[in-house]
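We emphasize that the prediction below concerns an isolated chain of 113 residues; any contacts that depend on oligomerization or on bound cofactors are therefore not represented. The input was used exactly as deposited, without trimming of termini.
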Amino acid sequence: MLNEREKRIQERAERAERGPWEWKEMSPGKPYSTIMIMSEDEYLHRGQAWPSEENADFIAHSRADVPYLLATVGRLRGLLKLARLYMAYDDDGAFEKAIQDVDAELESCEQNV
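Result of the prediction step, given as a token string:
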């Protein structure tokens, strides 16, 4: 159940290298500095442009994507907390089952990171 923005974020993440990533300052002490961000796979392919276009796109959007995703997680956790308060009034167990489904989906998302 992703909205359009979340689908674009997911697409960028899927196109980028899985990592782990690291960064290196290429010109320390100079008035200009080049910072190289790469995964282990990119490091092994030095003849290619790095970061790759896909990784550069992922990096460029991360400043907006990460706060958006963190705010979304915060809202979901708040809603889940509120829903748990209402579970006390759940006579037939349907609400509790729905909460368990949401918990399972959140855990699945966390494991895929």
